[in-house]
C-alpha cells in the first residue's frame, strides 16, 4: 500500500486547501468506475464498498455471476453486506431475511409475510466484469450506458499474466489525475531525476550528473473516432552520463472515460507490458488509484523493478496533488495547449445540468 490513507491527514489537507477556494467541478464525472478487483470476490461471497457517494453490496452467485445493489435494505436499513448471505442469485438481509434478486433488485422473499412484493426493490447497478476488475456504470442523472469499456485481449486470453499491483490514496479532485497526462511540461520538471535519487531533495543528488529520465510526449483526442477516448504517446529512455540513451520504452496510453487508462508498453529490454490504471473517487477529494501490471511470465523480475519505478514516479506526482488547489480558470501559456484541449475533452463527462460548479465548502459536509 502506497500513499497516505490516514483520515486525520486527509481531513487536515483537504480543509487547508479549500481556504479561499470557491469552486470545484462536480466530484463524480459520468462513466465506468472500478469498484473491486475480481480476485477479491469468490463464488457465494459478498463485499461492501463505499465510493462515488454511494454504498454498494457486490456479490457473486455460485455460477460466477456478479451483481451490484444498493447495500442498505429498504425495510429497516440494515447493511446487507454485513452478515447477509448469498443464496443462488439473491442476497438475503441479515436483519429479517428479506432477499433481493441480483438480476433486477426486486424482492424475492419475505419469509414471515404474504404481502404482495411487487414494487419492493433495491437499486441495481449496471456492472461489467472484465480485465480482472468489476466496474459499474455511474451517471449523475441515471442515464443509460453511453459507451463501453474495451476488453484487453492480452489479459482476457491470458497471453500476459498478472505480476503485481500498487495502490494509492490521493487527496485531490479526480480530474487532476488524468489531466496530468496532458500536462506535457511536468514530465521534465517532476520525472527527470533518477528514481534512486533522494526523495527529499532529488535535484541535488549526485545521480543527476550520471543518470536522468528523458520523456518525449504528445497528447491527442483525434486518433480515435470514439469521443470518450484520448491518447497519450510517450517515449522514455534513461540518459547515462548526459550522453548515452538506454532502456527505451514506447508507451501508448489510452484514457477511456474519466477513470480508466490502458498503458501499452513496448521495449527491447522489457518486451510487452500492459498496465491498467483505475481511479475511483472514495470521497469528492479522495481518489483511490490502482495500477495492475501484466507481462509474460519470464519477465517477472523486470516487471517487479518496473512496479517499483512506476510507484516512485507516481508518488512524485502525489506530492504535488496532495498539496495543490484546483484552478477552474488556470493561467496557461501557448505551450500548455494540450491542457486546454484536455479540459474541453473531459467536460463531456460532466452532466450538462451539473456544469455549474459546486461550492467547495460543501465538500466539508461529505
What would your notes on this structure say?
The protein is α+β, with helices and mostly antiparallel strands and 366 residues long. The protein has two domains: 42-129, 3-layer Sandwich (Rieske Iron-sulfur Protein), CATH 2.102.10; 153-349, Naphthalene 1,2-dioxygenase Alpha Subunit, Chain A, domain 1 (Alpha-Beta Complex). 16% of the residues lie in helices and 35% in strands. The chain is built from six helices and 20 strands. The protein has helices spanning 7-17, 153-156, 176-182, 186-191, 300-321, 337-346, and strands spanning 23-24, 31-37, 46-51, 54-60, 66-70, 85-87, 90-92, 99-101, 107-109, 124-125, 127-130, 133-138, 161-170, 211-220, 229-240, 244-256, 260-267, 271-283, 286-295, 358-359. A seven-stranded antiparallel β-sheet has the order 13-19-18-17-16-15-14. Strands 3-4-5-10 form a four-stranded antiparallel β-sheet, with no helix packed on it. It has a four-stranded antiparallel β-sheet with strand order 6-7-8-9, with no helix packed on it. Strand 3 and strand 4 form a beta hairpin. The longest helix has 22 residues, at 300-321. It is globular, with a radius of gyration of 22 Å. Residues 1-5 have low confidence and may be disordered.
Question: Quick gist of this model?
Answer:
The protein folds into 2 domains: 88 residues, Rieske [2Fe-2S] iron-sulphur domain (Rieske Iron-sulfur Protein, 3-layer Sandwich); 197 residues, Naphthalene 1,2-dioxygenase Alpha Subunit, Chain A, domain 1. The protein is built from 6 helices and 20 strands.
Amino acid at each position: 500500500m502506497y500513499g497516505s490513507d490516514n483520515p486525520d491527514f486527509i481531513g487536515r489537507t483537504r480543509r487547508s486547501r479549500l481556504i479561499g477556494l470557491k469552486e470545484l467541478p462536480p466530484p463524480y464525472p459520468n462513466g465506468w468506475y472500478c469498484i473491486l478487483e475480481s480476485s477479491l470476490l469468490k463464488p457465494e461471497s459478498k463485499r461492501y464498498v463505499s465510493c462515488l457517494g454511494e454504498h454498494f453490496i457486490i456479490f457473486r452467485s455460485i455460477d460466477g455471476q456478479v451483481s451490484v445493489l444498493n447495500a442498505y435494505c429498504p425495510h429497516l436499513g440494515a447493511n446487507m453486506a454485513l452478515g447477509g448471505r448469498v443464496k443462488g442469485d439473491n442476497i438475503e438481509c441479515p436483519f429479517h431475511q428479506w432477499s433481493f434478486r441480483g438480476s433486477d433488485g426486486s424482492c424475492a422473499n419475505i419469509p414471515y409475510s404474504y404481502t404482495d412484493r411487487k414494487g419492493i426493490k433495491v437499486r441495481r447497478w449496471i456492472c461489467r466484469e472484465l480485465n480482472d476488475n468489476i466496474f459499474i456504470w455511474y451517471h449523475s442523472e441515471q442515464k443509460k450506458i453511453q459507451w463501453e469499456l474495451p476488453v484487453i485481449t492480452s489479459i482476457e486470453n491470458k497471453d500476459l499474466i498478472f505480476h503485481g499491483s500498487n495502490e494509492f490514496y490521493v487527496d485531490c479532485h479526480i480530474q487532476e489525475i488524468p489531466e496530468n497526462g496532458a500536462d506535457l511540461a511536468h514530465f521534465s520538471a517532476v520525472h527527470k531525476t533518477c528514481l534512486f535519487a533522494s526523495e527529499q531533495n532529488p535535484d541535488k543528488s549526485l545521480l543527476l550528473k550520471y543518470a536522468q529520465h528523458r520523456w518525449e510526449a504528445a497528447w491527442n483526442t483525434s486518433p480515435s473516432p470514439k469521443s470518450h477516448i484520448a491518447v497519450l504517446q510517450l517515449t522514455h529512455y534513461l540518459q547515462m552520463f548526459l550522453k548515452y540513451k538506454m532502456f527505451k520504452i514506447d508507451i501508448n496510453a489510452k484514457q477511456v472515460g474519466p477513470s480508466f487508462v490502458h498503458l501499452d508498453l513496448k521495449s527491447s529490454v522489457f518486451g510487452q507490458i500492459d498496465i491498467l490504471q483505475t481511479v475511483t473517487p472514495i470521497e469528492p477529494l479522495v481518489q483511490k488509484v490502482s495500477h495492475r501490471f501484466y507481462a509474460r511470465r519470464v519477465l517477472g523480475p523486470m516487471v517487479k523493478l518496473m512496479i517499483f519505478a512506476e510507484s516512485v514516479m507516481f508518488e512524485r506526482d502525489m506530492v504535488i496533488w496532495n498539496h495543490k488547489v484546483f484552478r477552474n480558470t488556470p493561467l496557461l501559456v501557448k505551450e500548455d495547449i494540450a491542457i486546454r484541449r484536455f479540459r474541453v475533452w473531459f467536460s463531456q463527462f460532466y452532466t450538462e445540468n451539473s456544469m455549474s460548479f459546486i461550492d467547495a465548502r460543501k465538500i466539508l459536509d461529505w
